[in-house]
Specification:
Shape: elongated
Structural class: alpha/beta
Strand order of the largest sheet: 7-9-10-11-8-12-13
Number of domains: 4
Helix content: 40-55%
Number of helices: 23
CATH class of the largest domain: Alpha Beta
CATH topology of the largest domain: Rossmann fold
Radius of gyration: 29 Å
Length: 536
Amino acid sequence: MNSESLIPHHHQTIINELNLMLRARYPLLYIVSAEEEPVDRVLTILAQQSEPERIILSWDIVRGWHDNGTAKGSPISALERIKKEANQENIIYILRDIHSILRSPNDKSNVPIIREIKNLTKDLKHSRNCLILISHTLEIPPEFQEEVTVIDFPLPNIEEIDFLINQLVIPEKLKIEGLGKEQLIKACQGLSRARICRILAKALAEKQEVNETDIEKVLEEKKQAIRQTGILEFYSNHESLKNVGGLQNLKQWVRMRKDAFTEEARRYGIPNPKGVLLAGIQGTGKSLSAKTIAYEWRLPLLRLDAGRLFGGIVGESENKVRQMIKIVEAISPCVLWMDEIDKAFGNISSGIDGDSGTSRRVFGSLITWMQEKTAPVFIVATANNVQILPAELLRKGRFDEIFFLNLPTEIERKEIFKVHLQPLRPARLRDFNLNLLAKRTNNFSGAEIEQVIIDGMHLAFGTIDSNGNRRDFTTEDILRAIDDTVPLAAIAREKIEDLKQWAAQAGARTASVDNQLTFELKKYSLDQGISPLEVD
């Protein structure tokens, strides 16, 4: 079997791009990939398809040059060979895992290596040779920025995953087809080739076939793989819009775009939705809404804690952003939930980030991707202290819509009580005075309503009658819990008013059917000279 049969057809695009760079005499390439084997196969075919055919010489710090074992443990000796062979042509030199050297260019032991690579880039421009650096992470010292060309080797797409399955599992043992196979392929999205191969091999070793039961195992492997990144978390979500009380405007917006990621929508001319920003005080349902959007659209949900993007090592944060983008685009279509984005980027507007500009660089990379991404990744960003977010994030084009989640109205509070009480006491729901409970919880958030129900249950659970039985909880128990609760709104009225003003200035829509709030926002906008067309 020749090497070309071991790679999927779509890799030919990467090969063609690399071939063009070699013909144009690019001296220094940097390929970023977590897996070396597929990169090696691509480079092997690249060398074979070149005219004339090129020679590949690879080096690593443990085994030295693969053809003669020289220069073990000595990067500078490896570079000396490239310099001595300058009169030869059509050679591709590969250096592996020197990112630790590039990360510390000012270290005394690393300075000669950095200098010699820079010298070689000038020499290689005049030959048909090329130096390729391969690493799982990107580290570019300032000396190389104008000389190096970075290539991100992608995770396998649907076409390649299908190719891998057909290559590794003989037809007689592939007991899955049609929709089942499609689900298996989609489940594999976002995993490396090595992980996919291990899962298939394990299935074959366990039961001598691959069938629909392996889909769940693939999803579990995906959760582990994504969790290991330390950036993203894969959510198995079962929250539907029925679990959300109120927020009718937001629900309608979500339902209207339920089929927006389908091929039918593409043919119709509708672009992929970009995302929404959900702003409001704590406990108003922002996180729950993010989960329900993914569930309603039947898309995978990935949660990003933006604070995890920041690493202590120089350049680590930028690499984490690149890694995050690579994973979510490989899994797409999906929903990316960026939780409490204000905690990560709220200090940028003031210009005081205290981290030598890392926050601004990470933020810049993120919003550039949000603006230019073509992959079907729908972003749901949530924020409590939204006023401190930089204006660039709120500019048109980053999000499709900005929703303001206010405290629930009386009608919504009744619905929230119903949503929480229904699964707890389905046979006794009519025993609860929902109208009274809704009236007595003015200025309570949805989270606070849920908590007073729990507190009411504790009050009843702690009461034992003369027969030693615990009584069930009632409306009166919940009312007692309400009387003992001071809602956040009672001590944060000024913050809520500030949020309303921000919502008007930002042209945010109200997530609830709240005519009074909508009137206030429009009035504020008119008073401030903001066009009423910008406010809903």
